[in-house]
């Protein structure tokens, strides 16, 4: 049976992307679905929607509920309690550039480690030192990785991936796409997305 395929668009400022990143690999393996990890930036997409900040900041009641919801979900996933970043949403530009630069084999581990630093340890992901320490902990030559991530070529790749997400209809994170173009939004739709991807592979 051919394996399925799923595009996983995530934003480093998104706590729901963090939850999805922590569980997608194991679930995808069980479903025999290959995941394509696609970092992107929500800021330009929110701006096009008329938001100057996250909707969770624009609507305080919604934001307050989100943090309580995240506490419950983190406990259910047996993750450490969620730590709200000092600045929310955090500036994930450098993080996204580094993830974009890393190859398919290295991107998931970096993504999970940086999300953990942000939402489990309360570290500032806009701080170059945080990025450096996460890369070093994974065995990367961090100075070379960061230099390459900040090259004009890689910056253009991240812009193109963000534009691709917007063109496909992404309006929040995480978002998943199956090969037939179906969009599934939110951590709570991950299982549904994987099941659809698996069903497409069976038909194929």
Automatic annotation (TrEMBL):
GO terms for molecular function: isomerase activity. It comes from the Bacteria. It catalyses: 2-hydroxychromene-2-carboxylate = (3E)-4-(2-hydroxyphenyl)-2-oxobut-3-enoate. It is an enzyme of class 5 (isomerase). Coiled coil: none annotated. Its EC number is 5.99.1.4. Keywords: Isomerase. Residues 6-195 form the DSBA-like thioredoxin domain. This is 2-hydroxychromene-2-carboxylate isomerase. It comes from Xanthobacter aminoxidans. The lineage of its organism: Bacteria, Pseudomonadati, Pseudomonadota, Alphaproteobacteria, Hyphomicrobiales.
């Amino acid at each position: 049976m051919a394996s399925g395929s799923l595009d996983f668009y995530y934003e480093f400022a998104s706590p729901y992307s963090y939850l999805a990143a922590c569980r997608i690999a194991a679930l995808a393996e069980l479903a025999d679905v290959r995941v394509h990890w696609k970092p992107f930036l929500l800021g330009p997409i929110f701006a096009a929607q008329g938001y100057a900040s996250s909707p969770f900041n624009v609507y305080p009641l919604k934001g307050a509920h989100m943090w309580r919801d995240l506490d419950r979900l983190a406990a259910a996933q047996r993750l450490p309690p969620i730590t709200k970043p000092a600045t929310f949403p955090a500036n994930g530009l450098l993080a996204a550039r580094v993830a974009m630069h890393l190859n398919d084999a290295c991107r998931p581990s970096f993504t999970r480690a940086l999300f953990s630093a942000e939402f489990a340890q309360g570290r500032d992901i806009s701080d170059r030192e945080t990025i450096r320490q996460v890369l070093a902990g994974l065995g990367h030559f961090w100075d070379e990785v960061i230099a390459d991530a900040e090259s004009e070529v890689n910056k253009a790749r991240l812009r193109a991936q963000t534009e691709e997400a917007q063109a496909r209809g992404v309006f929040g994170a995480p978002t998943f796409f199956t090969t037939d173009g179906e969009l599934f939004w939110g951590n709570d739709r991950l299982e549904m997305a994987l099941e659809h991807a698996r069903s497409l592979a069976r038909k194929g």
